[in-house]
Input
Amino acid sequence: MGPKEAQHQEYLTARESYLKQLTSLSRRGFLRVAGIAAATVAATGKIAAHSFQPIEFDFGGEGGASGGAAAAPEAPKSFTIAYVSDSHLYEKKLNERFVRAAIKAVADVNALDPQPDFVLFGGDLAQLGAPGELALGKQILDELKPKRYMMVGEHDWYFDMGEKWRELFGKETYSFDHKGVHFVVLQSVVVEDYWTKPNLTPLQRMQAMAQLDNPHGRPFTVGEAQREWLKNDLAAVPKTTPLVVFSHSPLYKYYKAWNFWTDDAEQVQALLAPFKTVTVIHGHTHQMLSNRIGNISFHGMLSTAWPWPYAPHGLPKLTVQMNRADPFDEFDGCGDGSMDVLKSGEVNARYNLWSRNPVTITARYLDSGGKVDQPPLAVDSTY
Ligand SMILES: [Fe+2]
Ligand SMILES: [Fe+2]
Output
């Protein structure tokens, strides 16, 4: 057995014992397995040792992204946040691949230097909303060193209508202020009742929701109650304060058949329109995805579990596409990311693709309609 095979065997043995003990995971245990995972990845030679790339925010104006092509090449950064999203965890006895990926993302964030101001989890922590899946996810995310904010995805919700999620993480709709930016977290996966009439069980309701082409499909919405909440929340915020909204579904209409879509998007956008600088950061679509509608910039988050293909039509024109993921590489097209909040309040979004070079979609790229800061292609970093 060569050194790589021996290392791999050692990893398999350690992983097995780790998974047996995952329910009583300690910090030391977590760090050990994260280290083993990293060593194995390095041993396969498939994945570059680069890792996490953070979201940058810029508020304040000078040389900011709104200057378009004439703006300074390096807009001053105010602070950075990180994200991990769409982990889709099954209980460990069924599938530990996604567990490994979630642990890898947490290790990525913890290795960032300097540390981000906080990390957002972008929804779909669980695959079928099972209490055990959500508890496992919490256990893994509890190892994050920065402060953590949580958002709900449809996979977390439709088994028990959010009961376990709320018990573990608190409210699903909330806002907070950080360094002059107003952040809002929405539950954007509200759908009409499709389960009562056909008398679906909670699991059937969840399984229907988990399909990409759901035969019981109803479009996602933010819904009237939350729109009212948002209107009241924003009433107290000056229009010059930068807004960053986190939603699980994209707050626009991309592709309805896969629910890459929010049905009341225009009504939500109308509430955001009066603000000078608005960024929406969403999960759910598992791909590099960029859009601009009026004053609102949109960035999709990567999934740690799998990449979705691009929809057959409706792709926003400013999106820089990843090429098709390599099916022999379980991490290809997956990743995590970060955002630099710039002094202007706008955001540079970095996609930390685990098997490819990282890609940054800058505020200037979106502001200029794609004329400046054209990012390089997200090619496989082994080429
Ligand atoms: Fe997802
Ligand atoms: Fe989702």
